[in-house]
Design goal:
The relative contact order is 0.13. The protein is of the alpha+beta class. The protein is elongated. The chain starts with 24 loop residues before the first helix and ends in a 17-residue tail after the last strand. The protein contains 1 helix and 13 strands, in the order αβββββββββββββ. It has one domain.
C-alpha cells in the first residue's frame, strides 16, 4: 500500500463518526419553538395593524359625514335633515339614498337622492369593520350599502318643524352618526330561530341599533365634527348573533328625548 493512504474499513460504516453540521433533537425542537413564537408575534402584529387600519378608515368616513352635514346646515338655514322614509318610485328615500322594495339581499339602491350625497365622497357610507360577506350577515341590497346610523332625535316626523342644529343643547356632546346595525329575526332568511345581523340606518334612545364593532366600541361623530369611541350601555346589549355586539349608546350623547313620538 502506498504511503498516505488509509486502509478501507472491512467492517461496514463507522457509527461513531457524526455528520458535520447536523442538528441534535434538542436544537431542532428549540428552533421550531422560536419559529412558532415569531410566527405568533407576526400574526398578532398583522391583526393589530389591520384593526387600526379599519378603525382609521371608519374614522375618516365619520369625519366626512360630519363635515358633509355641516355643509348641509350651511345651505339649509342651519336645519338638520330628516331621517327619511318617503315612499317614491317603488321604494323610499332616506338620508343615505333611495332603497327599492323587494326581496332582502336583492333591493336596488341609489345614493344620489340622499340628503348627504352632494357633500360627501363615494364610499363614505360603508365601514370596513362591518363584514358583509360572512355567515350571519343579511344585506338589504346585493351588498351592504350603509354602515352608519343617524341620530333619530335630530329628525322629527312629517308635520313637525325641522330641528335647528344651533338649538341642540351641548352640541359638542351630542352624537350625529354612529356605527350601526341591528339583529333581524323577522325578514327572510332571518327568523326567530335564525337571527341575522344586518346594516341599519339610525340610532335612538329606544332601540338596539348601535354596532360596537371596533374592539367592543362604536365610533361616533358628534355635531361639532369630533370623532370618538363609545362603550355600550351594558344592560341593553343584544347578543343573539354570536361574535357581534349590538346595543345602545348612553342616552346622554344622543340628546334629550324629543317632544314628539317618532315612529319610523
Amino acid at each position: 500500500m502506498k504511503p498516505g493512504r488509509r486502509r478501507p474499513s472491512s467492517g461496514g460504516s463507522d457509527t461513531n463518526v457524526g455528520c458535520p453540521g447536523a442538528f441534535t433533537l434538542v436544537e431542532l425542537l428549540v428552533a421550531i419553538g422560536v419559529i412558532t413564537v415569531l410566527a405568533a408575534l407576526l400574526l398578532s402584529a398583522i391583526g393589530q395593524a389591520r384593526r387600526l387600519a379599519v378603525a382609521a378608515h371608519c374614522t375618516s368616513n365619520l369625519r366626512q359625514l360630519g363635515l358633509g352635514t355641516q355643509m348641509y346646515w350651511d345651505e339649509h338655514g342651519g336645519r338638520c335633515f330628516r331621517y327619511g322614509g318617503q315612499v317614491t318610485n317603488g321604494g323610499a328615500d332616506y338620508w343615505f339614498g333611495w332603497l327599492g322594495n323587494g326581496a332582502e339581499g336583492g333591493r336596488a339602491f341609489d345614493s344620489r337622492s340622499g340628503a348627504i350625497f352632494p357633500y360627501t365622497r363615494d364610499g363614505v357610507l360603508r365601514c370596513p369593520g362591518l363584514r358583509d360577506g360572512v355567515a350571519g350577515f343579511k344585506p338589504k341590497a346585493k351588498r351592504s350599502i350603509c354602515s352608519y346610523g343617524y341620530n333619530l332625535n335630530l329628525s322629527p316626523p312629517a308635520g313637525q318643524p325641522a330641528v335647528q342644529g344651533s338649538s341642540v343643547m351641548s352640541g359638542t356632546q351630542t352624537a350625529l352618526f354612529a356605527d350601526a346595525a341591528q339583529v333581524n329575526t323577522f325578514q327572510f332568511p332571518a327568523s326567530p330561530e335564525h337571527p341575522l345581523l344586518e346594516e341599519f340606518y339610525y340610532v335612538s334612545t329606544r332601540e338596539q341599533t348601535v354596532h360596537f364593532r371596533h374592539r367592543s366600541r362604536a365610533q361616533v361623530v358628534f355635531m361639532d365634527g369630533r370623532v370618538g369611541r363609545e362603550e355600550a350601555e351594558m344592560s341593553f346589549l343584544d347578543l343573539r348573533v354570536p361574535g357581534q355586539r349590538v346595543g345602545r349608546l348612553p342616552t346622554a350623547i344622543l340628546g334629550e328625548l324629543p317632544r314628539w313620538s317618532w315612529a319610523p
